[in-house]
Amino acid sequence: MSRERLGRDRACPPSRTDPPRADRDPARHTAATPLLRLWGVVAPRALGPATARSLRLVLGGIEPPFGRRHWDAVMRGDPAAMARVSITALRVGGPAGAGADAVASALLMRALAGDRTAPAILAGALRKLARLRPDDTHLPVLAEQWTAWSPRVPGPNPYDPGRHREAHA
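The structure assignment produced for this chain is given below.
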């Protein structure tokens, strides 16, 4: 274990409620890797709530690609933190960088949960990745699908009979 890593572990010891980290359970990290690559392979219409739940479990068990505080805010569902972390990560490391799969998977998770900003950022990342990999012809198509996609999150029923009634005393 490196000196930097050892110091960080001493400064921020894991609590008993923290999920196990990938570096402490290599099998978990290895098994999770394909799921973190869905964002660049699978069309949005093929994904659903089960995918979002699986991504949440996997993302909770990996080492955060950026600061723990920001990543925890992302995992709690803070849309502003998600936008800030993902845009910064994709600008600094690019869509093929070290933390890109984790950040894009978090975007995917938020998009499936109904966040309207996440699909736009995801589409931008896919366009950048398509410019880096011109032979992958599915990437621009996937980017367009994310641009046109709208979340399937149930909202209030506009035809609910009690919705427009005024309260009578």
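Interim note for the steering committee: The first helix runs from residue 3 to 11. Residues 22-148 form one domain.
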